[in-house]
Amino acid sequence: MYSEALKTGRKIFAVAPMIDWTDRHCRYLHRQISRHALLYTEMVVADAIIHGPRDRLLGYDAAEHPVALQLGGSDPAKLSQALRIAEAHGYDEINLNVGCPSDRVQSGTFGACLMLTPETVASCVAAMKAVSKAPVTVKCRIGVDDQEPEEALPELMTRVLDAGADAIWIHARKAWLKGLSPKENREIPPLDYEIVYRMKQRWPDVFIGINGGIQTLDQAEAHLAHVDGVMLGRAAYQNAAILADVDHRFYGAQAVESDWNALRDRMMAYTERHIAEGGRLQHVARHMVGLFSGLPGSRRYRQILSTDANKPGAGPEVIAAAFAAVDFAGEGERVSA
């Protein structure tokens, strides 16, 4: 994937891994809107794969490809074991989390705190490369706490690239492990896109992607003049309709008008299958709430999904009712019933 992108100059657009957000239902929705965007799982801890419900943690719909598995951990042996288990699921990429600043991640000595021990990250990457058929990548910050990014980031990159990492995704801000919450760590530390650009200049033959604070496809396109990939997180989740133009703008697909009726029908069918397997409508519907932000009728759309999807026995008809509330093309031109 990444070597081909470098050879052809093709850029990669991705939706960032987000804990509690980018589960299999979220990814299925995103895939219905963009056929080509690279999708990521939530971070899955290696210990959970080894000892927990593997099918629930690793299972996904075949329609989600290309999809990457993000792993959390700092023990090379456990990461290797988890990867052997995950191998049968056929993920298109394996990504190591070196950027999450949450307390529970810190207590496990992985995530962003691994920026402090680049030699450990390199050992983890080498162990993962030894057993993975898919590309192994790293997603990191530019530094943590009092680290100097101009020193910490190149050191980490040098070590993981020497260990065989196929690509590096960089969240272009520090993480403060003490004093800031995970939410504050996504907003307060200043963004420094220029340092990511400099890393690409230093390693022109390495795939380097950028993440952090990117809100629009115009901004994404501007970044791609400097790096190989761009990753949107909350902006893509909170208004997933933004993904509708990704295939045309970044992958050369023919521009077509979005068929929201077709999306409605696919999500209704998917939800019906999920409910038949013992799931609940809300498992899927919660990811759809922000889909049409800003369109006439979107407030009523959100109300229906947020309220009715939680009711006992709620089924796919709730999705139909929500879509019917949205005015997509002008006054009186709503999604057909």
Give a quick precis of the structure:
The protein has 337 residues and is α/β, with parallel strands linked by helices.
What's the overall average pLDDT, rounded?
Answer: 93
The ordered H/E elements are HEHEHHEHEHHEHEHHEHEHHHHHH
The best one-word shape is globular
Helix-and-strand structural type: alpha/beta
Stretches with pLDDT under 50, minimum 5 residues? 331-337
CATH topology of the largest domain: TIM Barrel
Q: Report the biggest beta sheet as strand number plus sense, adding barrel if it closes.
A: 8 strands, parallel, barrel
Strand content of the residues, in percent? 5-15%
Q: By CATH's scheme, which homologous superfamily of the largest domain applies?
A: Aldolase class I
* Rg for CA atoms: 20 Å
Count of DSSP H/I helices = 17
Q: How many domain units?
A: 2
Number of strands: 8
C-alpha end-to-end distance: 41 Å
Family: Belongs to the Dus family. DusA subfamily. Belongs to the dus family.
Protein name: tRNA-dihydrouridine(20/20a) synthase
Site (Interacts with tRNA): 97, 183, 186, 299, 302
Keywords: Flavoprotein, FMN, NADP, Nucleotide-binding, Oxidoreductase, RNA-binding, tRNA processing, tRNA-binding
Would you kindly provide a written description of the structure presented here, covering whatever features stand out?
The protein has helices at residues 2-8, 24-33, 46-51, 54-58, 76-86, 103-107, 118-131, 149-162, 182-185, 193-202, 217-223, 234-238, 246-251, 260-276, 281-285, 298-308, 317-324, and strands at residues 12-15, 38-45, 67-72, 93-98, 136-141, 167-171, 207-211, 229-232. It has 337 residues and is an alpha/beta fold. The protein has two domains: 2-251, Aldolase class I (TIM Barrel, Alpha-Beta Barrel), CATH 3.20.20.70; 260-324, Four Helix Bundle (Hemerythrin (Met), subunit A), CATH 1.20.120.1460. Strand 5 (136-141), helix 8 (149-162) and strand 6 (167-171) form a beta-alpha-beta unit. The longest helix is centred in the last third of the chain and has 17 residues, at 260-276. It starts with a helix and ends in a 13-residue tail after the last helix. The active site is at residue 100.
